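Regression check, zinc ion case 367:
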Amino acid sequence: MEFSFFFKNRAAQEKASALVEADSCNFRLSPKYRFYYRFARPIMPIFVRQLLQKGRKIPTEFDWYEPNAFMRLVTECCELAKEEITTIHPWPNRTEFAFVLTHDVETSVGMRHIARIADIEEGLGFRSSWNLIPYKYKIDMGLVNDLRDRGFEIGIHGYNHDGQLYSSRRVFEQRAVGINVAIKKYGAVGFRSPMVHRNLNWLQALDVEYDSSCFDIDPFQATPGGVGSIWPFIAGKFVELPYTLPQDHTLFVGLGELDDRIWKTKLDFIIRHQGMAMMLTHPDYLTSRRESETYFRFLKYVKEIGNFWHATPKELARWWRKREQTVSSLLNNDATSIDYSDGDRGRCHTDAAVTFETALERLPKRV
Ligand SMILES: [Zn+2]
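Current build output:
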């Protein structure tokens, strides 16, 4: 499969592609996890599951949420290349980073909390995407239509979330048919796998503009690893949007964090590198007062920082696709200016042709 990253240096592209390929093959659960998802999890009360998750000991560095190895690799490749690296800034309108909100709705309890969370997000000027499981719980079409009318987005989150989607290619392809039906029915253009299982080759069977099953780095998932990139990239026929801020569940349940300290530190890292800050939270877990207040406090904090491009994943994927085309024509035709006049670029069209100069300079140097 062809991958294309925002840094157009060949050595960096090859190394980043190899990392993504390696991470993408990492989709099979260990026998222990397979047993857990198939037999134990469905009958286990949620508090028992959470107790088990709290007891998981995963050795990590203090900065486990920063993909430093990937950053160093990219920097080294770019430093070795003597030629100038031609590209354009990742984000439109001279903004410094992208800020994207996504939610995976796990259960009917989560469905019931959507309206409350969406209202508060809207009040702060944000719009998010809601990834729904099409064949698990009842989906309220009135709510779906209302969210879409207000500028929120609907995405699809697996098939029925039973942990079996990737059990074989045959199973995946059978279910892909039903997933594509749901994509059409709910007007979705994006997908995220349950438990962030990921095989970017198999995912090509879905009728989507973007997938968001990858992450830059996350040692706390059932299939840990990560692609490293804090920017979107092209993966075959779609745009891949890795989530880059640790999941709410990992922080609040797995690690017992009491505040948004880790989100803030990671956001700082992303801003330094002009990356994409993509959150993955669950309305099912943002039910307690402390957790939902921590989430909304963080949104307010980001709002105060300013100078970011807030977009839904769909808008972001479309921007990235157009940006990629522009970079290609720039490289092929040696064009010196970029025409952003066509109306279809919507709110992204103005002043996006900022020559990309500073982001690579800000990558961490080898220590
Ligand atoms: Zn899920």
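Comparison notes: The longest strand covers residues 97-104. Residues 160 and 285 are 19 Å apart (CA to CA). No diff flagged against the previous build.
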